[in-house]
Write a structure and sequence with these properties.
Blueprint lengths: L7 E2 L10 E2 L3 H20 L4 E2 L1 E5 L4 H10 L2 H4 L6 E2 L19 E2 L3 E2 L6 E2 L12 E8 L2 E10 L6 E4 L5 E2 L4 E2 L1 E7 L12 E9 H6 L7 E5 L2 E7 L2 E8 L1 H5 L3 E3 L8 E6 L18 E2 L3 E2 L1 E5 L4 E7 L12 E7 L4 E7 L2 E3 L9 E5 L3 H11 L9
Parallel strand pairs: 5-10, 19-26
Antiparallel strand pairs: 1-2, 3-7, 4-6, 4-15, 8-19, 9-10, 9-14, 10-11, 11-16, 12-13, 14-15, 15-16, 17-18, 20-21, 20-22, 20-25, 23-24, 24-28, 25-26, 27-28
Length: about 375
Amino acid sequence: MIPRARHLAAAALSSALLMLPALTGTAHAAAWNAHSATASATASAAAPTSKVYAVPLARTLADVKRVANYWKPDRLKKSDSYTPATPGAAAPVSTSGGAAAPATPVATVRRSLAAQSVPPVPPRKGAAMTMGKVFFRIGDKEYWCSASSIAAKNRSVVATAAHCAYDSRQAKPADYWIFVPNPDANGETPDGIYVGASISLHEDWIGKADYDYDYAFVTVNRGFTWVAKNGGYVMQDVGRLQDNVGGLGIELNRKPGSYTARPFGYPAGAQPDGTRPFDGKTLLECPERSTRYTVAPGLDLQKGVELQPCDFSHGASGGPWVIGYDKNRKLGSLNGVNSLTWNRDARDRYDAVSSPYFDTTTGEVYRRAAAQATVPKVT
């Protein structure tokens, strides 16, 4: 056992427990000062490029219907029994659903063109309901994570953790990926089901599972609901995601410590002491707190952002960090996603959560997802 004085960092929300020695504030500051210096140099020099990878999912009507038919009401009713995503654990290679398409680089985007901020957008009617769960399959087993709808010009973008969309160990996307905003108990989908069309993410998640890039923006097809008919179910088109539930804005390049944020998610996994205080059925939030920097070299996390206190566990992966959250409108701006959780005091419960830093490169990934077209009709 490692002594408590070392303040162990606990593990990915997405994986089996990974124990890391916590780093001192001096180490944190040095890493962030180096990052800030690099960013300043970049701004004053010719803007470099970085690669955004495009990973196709369901790009045709036949693809959408194949995924939809997998997630019929009988399967969705069992959704609470599925496993919060654990891609750090061994998973079987998929033997069904067809061969996965490889990730391919898209045209590089100059950093000077990436969005710095996008305002939140309300739905066409009613209150915003931007947060929900994503469901997918790895091998022959179903998993889920948290996620949120993000304002975008194509009105069809979901933000989540990269480990909730792409398995870097197998170099392939998750199968049968869907987003369900505002899910009810027993698998009900009052605001529709949205089948993923393509994933946009950074090459360093694909290539080496670098937790500095544990975020993904998934372009989704038009939504649908299942309607009972003649003893079975038929799909009914409900339109685009943002029109129905609204979209969080996005904020980039905010210096940790200069703003506060509030994390959301659907935690369900065990705490360090083995207890399970959360069931994954209810959207929960941690207190709004000032952000601070954090690093974890063992996970290639060199520019992380941390919030404390927060006792989220498995299942909250991919849930949004929101700044400027308006409880009446249920809107604000995305500035991170739940990626890792920490047990800083080595006691019975997790006490902090961290996100990759949302910088200009994040904006490039988001812009790619926001520019993608989808199937014009899903029924």
